[in-house]
Design brief:
The structure is a single chain. By secondary structure, the chain is α/β, with parallel strands linked by helices. The protein folds into two domains: 129 residues, NAD(P)-binding Rossmann-like Domain (Rossmann fold, 3-Layer(aba) Sandwich); 101 residues, Dihydrodipicolinate Reductase, domain 2, CATH 3.30.360. It has eight helices and eleven strands. β1, α1 and β2 form a beta-alpha-beta unit. The two termini are 25 Å apart.
Length: 238
């Protein structure tokens, strides 16, 4: 498979290593020094673009890929105010787009366990719930996109939680997300239910970035030659 990498930070480098290990070809790499190379001529040379950049750059990068009729996989978080516009464009031009806030196979399993547990806890009111997320100090968005998905799934399945806030509130109707930033932490997410008698935790802790890169590559393999809007659930068959 011929791949273009858009964004060459820590994740971009991991994606390059993972792609080469699986026998794929890297046709180009875009970073802040050669943004002009993200053009139709180069995009026509690849099967899939994998985009991990910044919230400010993601929308325009994805738009360029779609308008060139190039399949694009994006893992950039913090730009989702424009997500529906990208979905609309993708469907209008019969393009191919896959977005995930987190490409880890384990995290996507966590999403489903989290929603299932929230449904159970909906009627067991002695338990309160909060989310803790820990990431590296260079992560630009807070809370993480993964934490937001976890929070939304809890709110959608638990009637007593009406909204989330990125702070400890003490309000039983508000789901607290507690964000920490520490050096060299790839990503940890904890959903904790507490009662006076005990507590239950769901936890995912990434050991390194290799798992995220592997997930992005299998997503790219999945989306090649397809048309439509996809998620990691489609890749994993969950």
């Amino acid at each position: 498979m011929h791949i273009g990498i858009i964004g060459y930070g820590k994740m971009g480098r991991e994606i390059e290593k993972s792609a080469l290990k699986k026998g794929h070809l890297i046709e180009f790499i875009i970073d802040e020094n050669n943004t002009e190379d993200l053009n139709n001529n180069n995009l026509k040379k690849i099967d899939v673009a994998i985009e991990f950049t910044t919230p400010a750059a993601a929308f325009e990068n994805i738009r360029k890929c779609l308008e060139a009729k190039t399949s694009v996989v994006s893992g950039t978080t913090g730009w989702l105010a424009n997500y529906n516009e990208i979905v609309k464009l993708c469907r209008k031009i019969n393009g191919s787009f896959l977005y995930a806030s987190n490409f880890s196979v384990g995290v996507n399993i966590l999403f489903h366990l989290n929603a299932s547990l929230a449904k159970i806890m909906n009627s067991i009111e002695q338990y309160d719930v909060e989310i803790n997320e820990i990431h590296h100090t260079t992560k630009l968005d807070s809370p993480s996109g993964t934490a937001i998905i976890l929070a939304d799934n809890i709110i959608n399945n638990m009637e007593r939680k009406k909204e989330w806030k990125n702070e400890q509130t003490g309000n039983k109707q508000i789901l607290s997300i507690l964000s920490e930033r520490k050096n060299d932490v790839p990503g940890t997410h904890i959903i904790k239910y507490s009662s006076n008698a005990d507590f239950i935790e769901l936890k995912h802790e990434a050991k390194n970035r290799a798992g995220f890169a592997f997930g992005a590559i299998i997503a790219a393999e999945f989306i090649k030659n397809k048309r439509g809007v996809y998620k990691m659930e489609d890749v994993l068959g969950i």
